[in-house]
TrEMBL record:
<protein>
    <submittedName>
        <fullName>MBL fold metallo-hydrolase</fullName>
    </submittedName>
</protein>
<dbReference type="InterPro" id="IPR036866">
    <property type="entry name" value="RibonucZ/Hydroxyglut_hydro"/>
</dbReference>
<dbReference type="Pfam" id="PF00753">
    <property type="entry name" value="Lactamase_B"/>
</dbReference>
<dbReference type="InterPro" id="IPR001279">
    <property type="entry name" value="Metallo-B-lactamas"/>
</dbReference>
<dbReference type="InterPro" id="IPR050855">
    <property type="entry name" value="NDM-1-like"/>
</dbReference>
<feature type="domain" description="Metallo-beta-lactamase">
    <location>
        <begin position="36"/>
        <end position="248"/>
    </location>
</feature>
Length: 301
């Protein structure tokens, strides 16, 4: 049975003033919530043209909001050096094609996300039977078709470095998607996790709207390999981060956050995994082709 791991306000990182449009949580890290999802900005304020990096690209229709934050934080007309992706679900790629073309920037992602980012395949459909709540109930209606970045798409370097983000390394954290990655900086123990885990109950429209703070497994309705999701959370908890930014929910820090993350890892099957569901019975694996849904490929039933 899925249970809540409550986190007090003491673990929620207090936002540092940054003009009112983005939450600055470290000198070179800020994020902006766009409806149900966070977009992250790496770079010092005033970094200027090509002096910063965008991490994920929000929902469709949010290009203007992203550009507004970028202009305020980095300077009018400042374009990023790159866009790096945790994964390619619809709420992380909504403005990606438009921004990549307008800014003329490379986009970096794990090689296993390529089919979804170069127009070859759609994600497996969302599973409305898991998690309860309105967000989960309409999961099969969410867009899952690919975007096509063409020549701008590049694989993240095999050596683990993150382009234009010195000191950061990427970690393959599959489960929510086959090519999902997280980003880790050892120097201050900062961790950007996408949807490997989140800090609100994303299946519930009310929790998503209110940003109710809790340590939560990956959004259930899109998670396709629960065994790998468990392993990924365990790997991230073992890093003992000081600061975490997730794709959904508020940034957290400190000992209470670490303890909650460890509890999530230790009791993942009990507190994060639904009792039943399409992808519990039939995980969508790269090996059998179900992770890459093309016109001639079946989806799990």
């Amino acid at each position: 049975m899925v249970q809540q791991i409550a986190v007090s306000d003491a673990a929620v990182l207090q936002d540092v003033a940054s003009g009112g449009t983005a939450h600055e949580i470290a000198p070179d890290l800020a994020y902006r919530r766009l409806a149900i999802v966070n977009v992250i900005f790496y770079g010092l304020p005033g970094a200027g043209n090509r002096g910063w990096v965008l991490i994920d690209a929000g929902l469709y229709g949010t290009k203007g909001f992203i550009k507004s934050v970028a202009a305020e934080r980095f300077g009018a007309g400042a374009r990023p050096a790159a866009i790096v992706m945790t994964h390619g679900h619809f709420d992380h790629v909504g403005a990606l094609e438009e921004l990549a073309e307008e800014w003329d920037v490379p986009v970096y992602a794990h090689p296993l996300e390529r089919p979804y980012l170069q127009g070859e395949a759609s994600y497996p459909p969302g599973d409305p039977s898991v998690g309860g709540g309105t967000m989960a109930a309409v999961a099969r209606l969410y867009p899952r078709g690919p975007v096509d970045l063409g020549h701008r798409l590049h694989d993240l370097p095999a050596n683990g470095e993150v382009p234009f983000m010195p000191g950061w390394r990427w970690i393959h954290t599959p489960g929510h998607s086959v090519g999902h990655v997280s980003f880790w900086r050892e120097s201050d123990r900062a961790l950007i996790v996408g949807d490997a885990f989140v800090t609100t109950a994303q299946e519930s429209a009310i929790s998503a709207a209110l940003q109710s703070a809790e340590m939560h497994g990956p959004p259930m309705y899109f998670t396709i390999e629960w065994d790998k999701a468990r392993d990924s959370v365990g790997r991230l908890a073992a890093l003992q981060p000081e600061l975490v930014i997730t794709g959904h929910g508020r940034a957290m820090h400190g000992e209470e956050m670490r303890e909650a993350l460890q509890r999530l890892a230790d009791s993942f099957d009990r507190v994060a995994v639904p009792a039943d569901g399409t992808y519990l019975r039939h995980p969508a694996r790269v090996e059998d082709g179900t992770a890459y849904v093309r016109h001639n490929r079946p989806v799990p039933q």
